[in-house]
Amino acid sequence: MSIRIGTRGSQLALWQAHHVEKKLQDAGYATEIVTIETKGDKILDVSISKIGSKGVFTEEIEAQLENGQIDIAVHSAKDMQSTLPEGFELIAFMEREKPNDVIISHKKNLQMNGTTPFVLGTSSTRRVATLKHLMPAIETTPVRGNLQTRIRKMKEGACDALLLAYAGVHRMGYEDMIVCEMPLNMFIPAVGQGSVAIEVHESLENKKSEAIRSILNHETTEQCIRAERSFLKVVDGGCSIPVFALAQIEDNQLSIEGGIISLDGSDKRVKKFSGEIKASEELGRQLAEEILSSGGERILKEIKNKINEK
Ligand SMILES: NCc1[nH]cc(CCC(=O)O)c1CC(=O)O
């Protein structure tokens, strides 16, 4: 009996699906990859924050999970909304890569010391706001599309450099273009960044689901991302809100650092909580509540108003 693996068709998504396929095959399973086009793949001329609807990259895939055309769906963990539609769940988080953001460029002599102006391409509100906070002199411009498209646009002159997740750059083999790695304490990543998540529908046989989980899940990564996702769920931002959180485990303790930043980068709330690993989700909730009650709620409201104006 073969495991049918659903995925989007971008090169990054396919890399992730093949990564999953290899692990399942090594464990003795036959597999099949099913490529599914989503609304988010079709609409390329509008920024995601303007499409706005939840699940633009997941709806078509979830339809196939529900009717059993595929057994599992492979996603970048960070692309998954904090609350899945009724009946769906994430059963595994694969071992996380370095979660950092990085700047890549095709220009070998790119100067980032402020002496020569340069334009950085990114469509992420989190990245734009964090840049404005840390390096207000840097100009940004929205660049959309999959990784290959963005790199092509950069080379055609849309921007001098791109700000991206290390994980995607690494998986696609563009590491030699990295000019700067953002430090984790200053540039906290998006929830789930760097890990691949496995989604199923409740109609999948329990035995199958458990077998797949035991092959693909990475315990430490799972605890960390469950903490981050529980933070995200309380903040309830949606994908275009600049929130961020990173959990890490050290000496049997889980610590989670995260917060929210205003769109213009002027107002930022960051806090850190640590505790027992088994309290991961509680720690995420605590972080969210503390961020919201210490000014985050007002920042969030302002951001939502601004986004709705557009
Ligand atoms: N938003 C798109 C997206 N979703 C996952 C990744 C990278 C891979 C990952 O974080 O696991 C990317 C590209 C990027 O943000 O640079």
From TrEMBL:
Protein's GO biological process: protoporphyrinogen IX biosynthetic process
Record has Transferase as a keyword: yes
Other comment: The porphobilinogen subunits are added to the dipyrromethane group.
Keyword field: Porphyrin biosynthesis, Transferase
UniProt organism field: Roseivirga misakiensis
Organism lineage: Bacteria, Pseudomonadati, Bacteroidota, Cytophagia, Cytophagales
Enzyme nomenclature, EC number: 2.5.1.61
Record text on subunit structure and interactions: Monomer.
InterPro entries noted in UniProt: HemC, Porphobilin_deaminase_N, Porphobilinogen_deaminase_C, Porphobilinogen_deaminase_C_sf
Protein name: Porphobilinogen deaminase
GO MF annotation, one: hydroxymethylbilane synthase activity
GO cellular component: cytoplasm
